[in-house]
């Protein structure tokens, strides 16, 4: 039997909390925590466990301040859902375990959050995606009709279990009486959810809105929903990009006087050798590019093919520019994450290593996954003189360009070698100059430059170039 855990030690453990462990409830029963599901260091533990031999899900609030307040808010949300007849896991117990409040609900075996369901649908036909998410629209409409909403609504707050959807995370549940939400509040809440589901369901927003209205949700126009969704998508992108160089659940950051290293947390151990000595891999890997600005090699680490890009300091001016925090390596790291959020394919950014001295930055190494893609010019070589053209390829590439346009993002160097085709998907690479624009005027100028540079990948008199000029969403910008 595990020894009862000390709450203070759990708080001090940060991310190093080890399961299994035992907590003693206020009534003397022993709660066994067996599998970590979520950990907010020093604040909250969510785990699968057992109570009196029954499988349960337990939330343990271990923060030094505010723990009781969070528990009360969670309980209030659970009771609201029960009182309004909305499906949520059954509450089994709540109270104190030592100095930490705890909430215990039933464990639903083989349940999945809609976030997990959504991941399985990547690349699936849109009709299948629509059928899987229609029940969500019906449930959200039922919430709004009964005067209930979730403040931070997202797919991770809904469980799919035995063909049913249930609402979880009572802490985010809000309610104002039994009256239906106003159309403005309902529209904002649904827009927030659809922004979180983006980009996988970009083409299904209208049909999802129809499913919501057919379920009796408050009435508002599709234009208002699109505006709300766009606003929340921009907010969500800003929030996620603010964490690209912070120690958090997604990234691990290690910084000292000599180096600043950020790496995807789940890969930190696998990438430890290259993080420790990236130059070893620069000399032993396969050279893909040798230039004044950068050197790029392919290396194999822990059974994984990686690309390591070293940003060289070729002259004093480059060294001075690189000393800033937000240099080209940092920009490439951040923009890789932006493309992931927008649903535009790019080799996954895995780690960024930067040397520093006296607080100023020097050489840097960007580590990404290796995508064995084909240069777009090579892929389309057979179409250059016509009469057939890459219709399906252009459609897929056009969707990626549309997503960049909607987010006011430009690439900065659209030469063919920076667009790789792999498994019928175009990947954008070399993101050093990528930029998100605040002003419409600057965005349009940079977008026109992107489009012009893309078309220049083919001779001016090539039929393919003229066809792309008309077929792609940015083709008409050619001067």
Describe what this molecule looks like in 3D.
The chain has 479 residues and is α+β, with helices and mostly antiparallel strands. It folds into four domains: 7-106, Phosphorylase Kinase, domain 1, CATH 3.30.200.20; 112-241, Orthogonal Bundle (Transferase(Phosphotransferase), domain 1), CATH 1.10.510; 251-369, Phosphorylase Kinase, domain 1 (2-Layer Sandwich); 374-477, Transferase(Phosphotransferase), domain 1 (Orthogonal Bundle). The protein contains 15 helices and 23 strands. The strands form six sheets. A seven-stranded antiparallel β-sheet has the order 12-13-17-18-16-15-14, sandwiched between helices. Helix 4 crosses helix 6 and helix 5 crosses helix 7. The protein is globular.
Broad shape: globular
Strand numbers in spatial order across the main sheet: 12-13-17-18-16-15-14
What is the CATH superfamily label of the largest domain? Transferase(Phosphotransferase) domain 1
User: What is the level-2 CATH architecture name of the largest domain?
Assistant: Orthogonal Bundle
Number of domains: 4
Share in β-strands: 25-35%
**Could you tell me the radius of gyration in angstroms?**
26 Å
Main sheet attributes: strand count, strand direction, barrel closure: 7 strands, antiparallel
Q: Provide mean pLDDT, rounded.
A: 89
**CATH domain topology of the largest domain:** Transferase(Phosphotransferase), domain 1
Flag low-confidence runs: 475-479
End-to-end Cα distance:
76 Å
Helix content: 25-40%
């Amino acid at each position: 039997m595990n020894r009862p855990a000390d709450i203070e030690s759990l708080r001090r453990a940060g991310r190093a909390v080890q399961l299994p462990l035992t907590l003693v409830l206020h009534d003397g029963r022993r709660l066994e925590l067996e599998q970590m599901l979520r950990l907010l260091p020093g604040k909250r533990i969510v785990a699968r466990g057992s109570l009196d031999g029954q499988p349960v899900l337990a939330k343990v609030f271990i923060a030094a301040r505010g723990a009781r307040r969070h528990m009360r808010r969670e309980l209030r949300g659970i009771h609201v859902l029960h009182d309004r007849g909305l499906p949520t896991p059954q509450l089994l117990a709540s109270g104190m375990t030592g100095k930490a409040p705890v909430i215990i609900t039933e464990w639903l075996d083989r349940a999945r959050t809609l976030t997990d369901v959504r991941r399985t649908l990547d690349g699936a036909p849109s009709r299948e995606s629509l059928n899987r998410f229609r029940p969500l629209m019906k449930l959200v409409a039922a919430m709004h009709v009964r005067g209930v909403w979730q403040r931070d609504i997202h797919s991770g707050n809904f469980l799919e279990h035995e063909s049913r959807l249930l609402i979880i995370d009572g802490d985010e549940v809000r309610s104002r009486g039994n009256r239906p939400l106003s159309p403005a509040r309902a529209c904002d809440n649904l827009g927030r959810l659809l922004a979180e589901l983006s980009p996988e369901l970009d083409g299904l927003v209208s049909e999802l809105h129809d499913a919501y209205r057919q379920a009796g949700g408050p009435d508002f126009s599709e234009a208002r929903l699109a505006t709300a969704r766009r606003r929340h998508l921009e907010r969500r992108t800003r929030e996620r990009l603010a964490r690209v160089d912070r120690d958090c659940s997604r990234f691990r950051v290690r910084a000292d006087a000599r180096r600043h290293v950020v790496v995807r947390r789940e890969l930190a151990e696998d990438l430890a050798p290259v993080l420790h000595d990236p130059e070893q891999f620069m000399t032993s890997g396969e050279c893909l590019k040798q230039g004044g600005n950068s050197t790029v090699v392919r290396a194999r680490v822990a059974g994984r093919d990686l690309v390591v890009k070293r940003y060289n300091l070729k002259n004093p001016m480059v060294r001075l520019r690189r000393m800033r925090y937000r240099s080209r390596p940092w920009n490439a790291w951040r923009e890789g994450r932006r493309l992931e959020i927008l649903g535009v394919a790019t080799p996954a950014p895995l780690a960024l290593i930067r040397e520093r001295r006296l607080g100023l930055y020097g050489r840097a190494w960007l580590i990404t996954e290796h995508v064995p893609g084909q240069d777009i010019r090579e892929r389309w070589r057979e179409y250059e003189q016509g009469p057939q053209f890459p219709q399906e390829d252009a459609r897929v590439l056009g969707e990626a360009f549309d997503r960049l346009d909607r987010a006011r993002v430009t690439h900065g160097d659209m030469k063919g070698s920076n667009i790789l085709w792999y498994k019928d998907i175009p990947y954008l690479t070399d993101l050093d100059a990528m930029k998100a624009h605040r002003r419409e005027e600057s965005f349009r100028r940079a977008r026109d430059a992107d489009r012009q540079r893309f078309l220049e990948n083919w001779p001016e008199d090539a039929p393919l170039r003229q066809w792309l000029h008309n077929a792609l969403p940015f083709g008409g910008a050619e001067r």
